[in-house]
Amino acid sequence: xxxxxxxxxxxxxxxxxxxxxxxxxxxxxxxxxxxxxxxxxxxxxxxxxxxxxxxxxxxxxxxxxxxxxxxxxxxxxxxxxxxxxxxxxxxxxxxxxxxxxxxxxxxxxxxxxxxxxxxxxxxxxxxxxxxxxxxxxxxxxxxxxxxxxxxxxxxxxxxxxxxxxxxxxxxxxxxxxxxxxxxxxxxxxxxxxxxxxxxxxxxxxxxxxxxxxxxxxxxxxxxxxxxxxxxxxxxxxxxxxxxxxxxxxxxxxxxxxxxxxxxxxxxxxxxxxxxxxxxxxxxxxxxxxxxxxxxxxxxxxxxxxxxxxxxxxxxxxxxxxxxxxxxxxxxxxxxxxxxxxxxxxxxxxxxxxxxxxxxxxxxxxxxxxxxxxxxxxxxxxxxxxxxxxxxxxxxxxxxxxxxxxxxxxxxxxxxxxxxxxxxxxxxxxxxxxxxxxxxxxxxxxxxxxxxxxxxxxxxxxxxxxxxxxxxxxxxxxxxxxxxxxxxx
Length: 488
What we know:
By secondary structure, the protein is an alpha/beta fold. The protein has 13 helices and 15 strands. The chain has one domain: 4-Layer Sandwich (Purple Acid Phosphatase, chain A, domain 2), CATH 3.60.21.
């Protein structure tokens, strides 16, 4: 009788464990509309095709699920070229995954073991989201929208610890793409930020700018690879206020170690330059656009970058821009979760040198917004899009040029002077926000001679479901083992 009850309990737990694991590993199709967790198809010709003819005969909602969950069934011969163009000489679509504000926590001497376990599991929960979406969609680019960590007020040692977790647990990649992080983590020596400071201060402004202009880069490890690598996408890590601080408290130490481990804070990548299909990614450090700043040099460097884009890069640019930055642009109260707000240090007795300097901001100011939009999206260019982070909740706005002023609204204003610019404030990938993945598809329309952009979210669930799948799996293994040993 006892063994009979045990068997019922055992197989009930196993069944629930299987159900939870199916949910966790196939969540894009179980929890989301079928059109949300895939690249946008701008025409019937872009529909996913299979190597097996009978799958292509199935209803698209069924065949898509099969092909995205089992990519080895896909027929990718059209895209299988070492070129930005497919075998029919059509430029390949832009496939970018955007992850908002992971904000991973750290462990300290007094951190309780339950919190350490929570941090450990959270790393793998976030990593599960990335791995699932990467294997499902094979992006050409991946952007993490800043706030990689939960606090900028950590020593270099803890910064190294979190960066190691970031590349080993969250966003895993082949060894060559993370070797620099692993070497620095192994040495675990404080970075000589003063040496980096001296190099930056003495750097010729045009040398600095030219070192931040790239052409047809799809791989930071192999610059000769001039085509999208869907197995190893180009990774873009943005600065966030929890990584380097707002300008009123960002130091040379903050900036130096970010550059060391995550790359430059401002740069442009041009693609297909001089052709009808040209486009570019601009990575902009919005934390160092406004002040008063603790290190005014940072503001000078960022505005110099922006102005040089205007002077040198915009002259012959007639393509589309994908702007990636952390802080959203100015918009009136009520359009997004956060309204416009700037705070400044006042009566700071512990650090009086910060008084009067910028402490926090929800948006860029109206003035900065106008300047940036005019320069990054010049009048001779074409359709573009902005992806930002920062507020966690997400927002979708359109910037319409009315006269000589950019105004944000919930929809396109038909009276706009020219094409509107869509801004997506990317929802956070944290569990409290249902583990979101932003999916940006860019497609070149030959008739319009312009890039078109579409954006969707693929949602997971709060991290407790991921934890439950792991716990139930462990319990199931224990119960199955006990049943085998004791013949129950």
